[in-house]
Amino acid sequence: MTPQIRERTEPPALIEATALPRLFEVLRTRGYTVVGPTVRDGAIVVAELTSAGELPYGIGVDADAGRYRLRDRGDRAAFGHSAGPQSWKSVLHPARAPLWSADRSPDGTVTVHEPAEQHRYALLGVRPCDLAAIGVLDRVLTGGRHRDPVYAGRRDGNLIIAVECTEPGATCFCASMGTGPDAGHGFDLAMTELVDGDGHRFLVRAGTAAGAEVLAELPRRPADDGTSARAREAVAHAATRMTRSMPGHGLPDLLAESRESPHWDDVAARCLTCGNCTMVCPTCFCTTTEDVTDLTGDHAERWRRWDSCFDLDFSYLHGGSVRTSGQARYRQWITHKLGTWHDQFGSSGCVGCGRCIAWCPAGIDITQEVAALSQAAGDGTAAPS
Asked: What proportion of the chain, given as a percentage, has pLDDT over 70?
């Protein structure tokens, strides 16, 4: 089952950046598969790491609507980048996962095999927005009567090492969603990276007993008041640098009242219904299944893969699809994400990471679309449902 994290309150410690290789040693010795950020194909991706040398030292990100580029930061910060195209969903709720396979022997006997998850993951470098997204997926996929076996198998026994944000990306708006840039809870260890005239170091605090045990095996020293204050100031300053925001309240009502708004036609004229926004979103969880067989017909497999509400066949019922227009499909996505998600799961489905903005090929900005709907409703041009 998904671990119940017991929060701890202990004085923070300081570790030097030179202790990161030791952190990898400790995690691997404890049986964890380390997953973290690295550079691949011109982006910061999430992948299995074998050493601290694979972290994206000195790499930052320039992002805007429909734009994402890496840049040289001019320092050795290991986590000085904003959200890349992948979130931790790609590890915990993978894009493609086997559900079962079956083999038929020559005598006609059929044997069914179900895969068993063998990894215990240490998630290194989880941003506060993604920490909140994992919490959302926990509620969606393990919080009800029917637990998702693939997610639960990959989530159980994890160690989460969060990294607080000190330099947000241009598409970030986590501060307005209450999901960052500081890490409040849900982590085993939380680190704040500081690179300045006093060196390259991390302020680290433990959130659970498991995190405290890992920290105890690292070379560390007590954090002085001055360094702790600089770390807090850096995180607080990051919140003031975010240029995008989402309204703090009233979104479910706004979207319900805007069901027939003419603004959806404007969005539909730009939206390609490619589904990129759902693929990069750290909380979108929809899937479908596909069955495959070999040429002999003696071996069959069932796989689960991500699906998207932007797919025309996603709402297919006998006789045809329910949402045949791009307008209807975009409206479904944003209305569920920001509105009816509250009814289903008790929170917003958006954590303010900004991925859907950066990775939309048409440059559609969810914060601007909400602002336009709000203005239309204020002008009386959004008809109530």
From this structure: 96
pLDDT in tens, 360-379: 999 999 999 999 999 988 75
Final residue of a domain: which of 240, 274, 289? 240
Average pLDDT (284-311) is 96
Task: Supply the DSSP string of 174-221, one letter for each residue.
Answer: HHHHT--SS--SS-SEEEEEEEETTEEEEEEEESSHHHHHHHHTS--E
Asked whether residue 166 is assigned to any structural domain, the reply reads: yes
**b/e sequence 312-323, b meaning 16+ C-beta within 10 Å:** eebeeeeeeeeb
Looking at the fold, whether 267 and 291 belong to one and the same domain comes out as yes
Q: Identify the pLDDT of residue 66.
A: 96
In the chain, the amino acid numbered 48 is E
Mean pLDDT in residue range 213-228? 96
Q: Which of 240, 271, 286 is the last residue of a domain?
A: 240
Q: Which is higher by pLDDT, 378 or 53? A: 53
Query: pTM above the 0.85 mark?
Result: yes
pLDDT of residue 118: 77
- Parent domain of 76: 13-240
Contacts of 147 (CB under 8 A, 6+ apart): 1, 141
Same domain, 166 and 276: no
What domain count does the chain have?
2
User: In 3D, which of 63, 26, 369, 356 has the Cα closest to residue 210?
Assistant: 26
Q: Which residues contact 51 (CB under 8 A, 6 or more apart)?
A: 21, 24
**Cα–Cα dist 320/323, whole Å:** 9
Nearest to 117 by CA among 147, 91, 153: 153
Give the Cβ contact number of residue 264 at 10 Å.
Answer: 23
DSSP 300-314: EEEEEEE--TTSGGG
End-to-end, the C-alpha distance of the chain in Å comes to 41
Per-residue pLDDT at 380: 52
Picking from 118, 205, 193, 124, the residue whose alpha carbon sits closest to that of residue 156 is 118
Q: Which of 50, 28, 286, 260 is nearest to 159 (CA)?
A: 28
- Is the predicted pLDDT of residue 3 greater than 70, yes or no? no
Contacts of 307 (CB under 8 A, 6+ apart): 286, 287, 288, 314
